[in-house]
Amino acid sequence: MDLNQSMMFRMKVGLGFIAALDQSGQSTPNALSLYGIDASEWEADSKMYDLIHKMRSRIAQSKDFNGDRVIGAILFEDTMNRTIDGVPTSRFLWERKGIVPFLKIDKGLEPANKDVQLLKPIPDLTDLLRRAVAHGIFGTKQRSVVHGANQDGIRLVVEQQLDLARKVLGHGLVPIMEPEIDIHIPDKRQAEAILLEELLSGLNRLPDDGCQVMLKVSLPSESNLYEPVTAHPKVLRVVALSGGYSRDQANEKLALNSGIIASFSRALTEGLTSQQTEAEFDRQLGASIGCIYDASTSG
């Protein structure tokens, strides 16, 4: 079994969840603040990225962060380009931890239009995907946001995600399409129903060549809403973001959705601080991993 097949098998049948360690330049300051590092501690972006990589490295090197319960990790491009313990990050995750590496490839969001935010253009996409392959990355992740139950807007989101997914598949990578729905909008149920309809229609238009995609969705208001997607032959796995819910809230909602596993970011790192001793840090991270694993495997 070659490397890609090994990762594919792991992602298809592995028990556990995907850690989202992909905070971008816009979200990194808040992630560092929650970690106990104030913005006054850096002046340049380079220092900020040094600090967030130190945090991510601390997580990745923790004894509880391993393939027994964490089956994948999504990386920011800067993280992919760095090393952990002297080993390129993606290789460290797979070879030392048994964790499948993914790469966040989007460059942020366009201004809202038709109640959605589409992906900004990715001008260096081909080069980025080639470098991802060279680093041993298994798949990609790209996030759009839905702010209302607007069918025209949601259709645009799904069409853009599918178009990018085809390009990713063309490089032998597995795309995670992430059409996030804002959990605070009043018409969330209606938006979810429209998204489900558009996703199924779009998935049916993908070529019947054996390639599969993954989906990352907001935790739905109606439990098991996305069951038709999890059962779709062109979908490798469906994962859920915490989307602003606390870890306890996200775990409770996740456990009600069979066939969906977590891909949490803030909910995973909740309670971790730079001031903790290694024992305190490992204990908190281990507890977080344990409860997210339980919610991801309860169905």
Q: What features would you highlight for this structure?
A:
299 residues; alpha/beta; nine-stranded mixed beta sheet; two-stranded antiparallel ribbon; 12 helices; globular
Mind explaining what this structure looks like?
- Helix content is about 45%, strand content about 20%.
- With about 300 residues, the protein is an alpha/beta fold.
- The chain is globular, with a radius of gyration of 18 Å.
- It starts with a helix and ends with a helix.
- The mean pLDDT is about 95.
Q: What is the helical fraction, as a range of percent?
A: 40-55%
- H/E order of the elements? HEHHEHEEHEEHEHEHEHEHEHH
How many alpha or pi helices?
12
Radius of gyration computed on alpha carbons = 18 Å
By oligomeric state, this entry counts as single chain
- Please describe the biggest sheet, giving its number of strands, its sense, and whether it closes into a barrel: 9 strands, mixed
**Class by SSE composition:** alpha/beta
CATH superfamily: Aldolase class I
User: pLDDT under 50 segments (min length 5)?
Assistant: none
From the N-terminal CA to the C-terminal CA, the straight-line distance is 29 Å
Give the name of the CATH architecture: Alpha-Beta Barrel
Per DSSP E runs of 2 or more residues, the count of β-strands stands at 11
**CATH class identity:** Alpha Beta
